[in-house]
Amino acid sequence: MILVIGAGAVGSFLGWTLASGGEEVQLLRRHGPTETRPEALSVAGPGAPAALVPINVLGSVEGVTGSPEIVLIAVKMPDLPGAIGTAAAWPEATVLAVENGVGADELLADARPGGGLIAGSLTTSVERADDGSIRRLSRGGIVLAPVHGEVRVAVQRLLAAFTAGGLRARETTDPAAMRWSKLLINLLGNASGAIVDLDPVAVFRDRDLFGLERRQLDEALATMTGLGLHPIRLFGADTRLLPIAARLPGPLVQPILSRVVAGGRGGKRPSLHLHLDGGSGPTEVAWLNGAVARAAAKLGRQAPVNACLAELVEACNQDPEHRAWFRGRPDRLLETIAAG
């Protein structure tokens, strides 16, 4: 049995996919009724048949039946410590962590030094519809990377189930390179768009904001190089091309990256933008732009654009009036970063 911790759009989508691929899945929901009840989940969109799949949805750990062989964690990074505490009830289970940003694997390794751990990066954009179904907005896929422990059998089992459920899946051997490659995608049009309230396509079509995006990307790529990491191919996003794009003239690469960003997100706004539009609690920016700035500092370098973007997202999250001052004003964002 596979237990999914996190019943948001991503967790529900992955649970549906695994169940469609023949696995017994239980879905642990943080909010909602405490009793266990069967629900029929459906996913519609590119590459996904709109089939109803029954899954047991749980409102508490006490509702879990049996002992899961695999625990899949699909929560936002600020919620990861709580999910790790929940997963501690099954110390023998292999954990698959499907999180954005950098830092999840280190937290899990510290908390579960003897357990099997797999890193996962999902490039399929999904969202929950008003009727509770999941909409798949882009095809994408999932890449898995063993982190530690005897996890080969679990990796092959997951790859087979994801594939049978209609999600492209493959394995890579370098979890750090995979996490940083997904980070590069998560950075594009995310923090800057969230601050000025523009979607990523509009960000990349604005000449000045595009210049800011390139500087942000250059810092992240330089930090990866300093860490001895190289971008890898992810489904729907071959980040190996980003270092090449970073060296091309702006007028040439700007329309190319605009199309890439538009196609990869399927019209969905990035996570930081959605959070500032109505989320609560801390954002994930500390594990995105903040992670770049921290890693660069450990290397004795600086990543000033990423550091400033991280600070500004947090400031906008804490004070809506601060964001209102930036809304629709890229010039103010650019002036603030130049002064910082």
Itemize the secondary structure elements and their pairings.
Layout: E1 2-5, H1 9-20, E2 25-28, E3 37-44, E4 52-58, E5 70-73, H2 80-87, E6 94-98, H3 104-111, E7 117-122, E8 126-128, E9 134-136, E10 142-148, H4 152-164, E11 169-171, H5 175-187, H6 191-196, H7 200-205, H8 207-226, E12 233-234, E13 237-238, H9 242-247, H10 250-265, H11 271-278, H12 289-298, H13 304-318, H14 320-326, H15 330-339
Parallel strand pairs: 1-2, 1-5, 2-4, 3-9, 5-6, 6-7, 10-11
Antiparallel strand pairs: 3-4, 7-10, 8-9, 12-13
Number of domains: 2
Q: Could you give the count of β-strands?
A: 13
What summary fits the major beta sheet? Answer: 11 strands, mixed
CATH topology of the largest domain: Rossmann fold
How would you characterize this protein structure?
With 340 residues, this protein is of the alpha/beta class. It has 2 domains: 2-173, NAD(P)-binding Rossmann-like Domain (Rossmann fold), CATH 3.40.50.720; 181-339, N-(1-d-carboxylethyl)-l-norvaline Dehydrogenase, domain 2. Helix content is 46%, strand content 17%. It contains 15 helices and 13 strands. The chain has an 11-stranded mixed β-sheet with strand order 8-9-3-4-2-1-5-6-7-10-11, with helices on both faces. A two-stranded antiparallel sheet has the order 12-13. The mean pLDDT is 89.
